[in-house]
Design goal:
This protein has 263 residues and is mostly helical. The relative contact order is 0.15. It has 10 helices and no strands. Helix 2 runs antiparallel to helix 4.
């Protein structure tokens, strides 16, 4: 009987620690260096939960599952790419815009954008790696103990088969990669938060629409991978890493921009 290798379990744990621990470490570092506030951080967290896990999830529930016409239409990978990227961009960047405009009236400095982005991206990492990580580690334990088949019925077993195959046959690097990807995504969320915050601070709404477009483009490769157009996950990860590097450059450049806007 095939089992989940110890290296794969270790990689799962390492990926979870990297993906969840990095935002926490960055918050501690930025709080010490720039004295960032808890309020934008918590609002960023709330934004992800409300606009992604509640509103966007309900939107996807209708268009991807309940509506038969859109369900068939979105089986086209390119339509799915456009739909997924634009939906993510509109819901998340609108969430940032609403929260920053109405709940961050007294906190619109560069450091507040850092804090907001860390809350938003950090909670996404916690949700994706925390929930999924617990599921994968639990399945690994069931597989290795020989109780996987006895704990699942036929329908559930069939649904979990892709995860089982991934755990048993997948490269440990892929599990570690999930944590590294979250680090890149957190940096992108900080960058996008600063774009939207600048839109609010400067009163130039065009920067909000720019953030929506950038967010959509960032999600396009992942959507194409999910739909099978891109077969190599490393191409997606290289793209994520490249955008993360650009985000860091923007985060650094944005600081004097916010200082000039303040003046």
């Amino acid at each position: 009987m095939k089992v989940v290798e110890t290296s794969a379990i270790a990689a799962q744990l390492a990926g979870m620690v990297l993906g969840i621990g990095t935002p926490a470490a960055l918050f501690i570092y930025f709080r010490k260096k720039y004295r960032i506030s808890w309020k934008p951080f918590l609002l960023g967290l709330l934004t992800f939960f409300l606009f992604v896990q509640v509103l966007e999830a309900a939107f996807h529930g209708y268009f991807l599952y309940a509506n038969e016409w859109t369900k068939e239409w979105l089986k086209n990978p390119w339509m799915y790419m456009l739909y997924g990227g634009l939906a993510a961009g509109i819901f998340e960047e609108t969430g940032r815009l609403v929260m920053m405009k109405f709940a961050l009236k007294s906190r619109r400095d560069w450091k507040d954008g850092l804090s907001f982005g860390l809350g938003h991206g950090g909670f996404e990492a916690l949700w994706i790696l925390g929930v999924n990580g617990v599921v994968l580690l639990s399945l690994s334990f069931f597989i290795n103990s020989g109780s996987f088949d006895s704990l699942t019925d036929g329908q559930l077993k069939e649904a979990l088969r892709p995860l089982r195959d991934q755990l048993v046959n997948g490269s440990p690097w892929l599990f570690l990669l999930a944590g590294l990807e979250r680090i890149g995504a957190v940096l992108v969320h900080i960058g996008l938060s600063l774009v939207v915050l600048y839109a609010v601070k400067s009163g130039q709404l065009k920067f909000y629409w720019f953030a929506v477009l950038l967010h959509a483009i960032f999600d396009f490769p992942a959507a194409l991978y999910q739909s099978g157009v891109i077969a190599d996950i490393w191409l997606v990860e290289i793209f994520v890493a490249g955008v993360a590097v650009l985000s860091v450059a923007w985060i650094i450049k944005a600081k004097p921009l916010f200082e000039r806007a303040e003046a």
